């Protein structure tokens, strides 16, 4: 069971097509939209401000979302938040990427189709124009992104759309094996779901 907690009479909302790992924690004013993926040990703590993940967004392992009272923290459509990132009172634009262990602070706005590099620190109030590469501590806008870089980002987010479906239909808690099987198979994304589930996911 997903760890979901009401506070002050407000209960998190998770769309039926979203996948939330059972070890993630959702508290209070949290809204998880369609086709989102929430990874293991993510903390989405809406005990002060509202936290919103729009359609197709992903929030990966050990990420944290939080914000001050009266403030919304938003990941827009197809926003992609890498392992260990922290979002506090900010807005991540449509199809933007926040890299692993990056921090985005209050009232910062990451423009659509932008990339925040891993380990970057985006200071409070920074406004990032669309299609920007943001790097460093403190973060600076280094250049505009190329079409190929945006295609790469979009493709990666598509893999997380697929992972949300794959996780809902094939992930289950089991006992670990005690030794490696002969001819141990590797993950094959094309065959990881029954054919009709691939078709349904593509139609969404």
UniProtKB/TrEMBL annotation:
<dbReference type="InterPro" id="IPR011974">
    <property type="entry name" value="PaaY"/>
</dbReference>
<dbReference type="Pfam" id="PF00132">
    <property type="entry name" value="Hexapep"/>
</dbReference>
<protein>
    <submittedName>
        <fullName>Phenylacetic acid degradation protein</fullName>
    </submittedName>
</protein>
<dbReference type="InterPro" id="IPR011004">
    <property type="entry name" value="Trimer_LpxA-like_sf"/>
</dbReference>
<dbReference type="InterPro" id="IPR050484">
    <property type="entry name" value="Transf_Hexapept/Carb_Anhydrase"/>
</dbReference>
<dbReference type="InterPro" id="IPR001451">
    <property type="entry name" value="Hexapep"/>
</dbReference>
């Amino acid at each position: 069971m997903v760890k979901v907690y009401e506070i002050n009479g407000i209960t998190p909302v998770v769309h039926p097509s979203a996948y939330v790992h059972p070890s993630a924690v959702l508290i209070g004013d949290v809204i998880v939209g369609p086709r989102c993926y929430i990874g293991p040990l993510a903390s989405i703590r809406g005990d002060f401000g509202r936290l919103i993940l729009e359609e197709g967004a992903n929030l990966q392992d050990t990420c944290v979302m939080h914000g001050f009272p009266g403030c919304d923290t938003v990941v827009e459509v197809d926003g992609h938040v890498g392992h260990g990132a922290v979002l506090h009172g900010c807005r991540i634009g449509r199809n933007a990427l926040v890299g692993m262990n990056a921090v985005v602070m209050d009232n910062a706005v990451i423009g659509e189709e932008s990339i925040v590099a891993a380990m970057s620190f985006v200071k409070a109030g920074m406004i990032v124009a669309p299609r920007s590469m943001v790097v460093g501590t403190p973060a600076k806008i280094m250049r505009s992104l190329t079409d190929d870089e945006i295609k790469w980002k979009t493709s990666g987010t598509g893999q997380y759309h697929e992972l949300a479906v794959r996780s809902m239909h094939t992930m289950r808690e089991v006992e670990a094996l005690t030794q490696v099987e002969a001819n141990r198979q590797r993950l094959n994304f094309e065959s990881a779901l029954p054919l009709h589930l691939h078709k349904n996911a593509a139609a969404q």
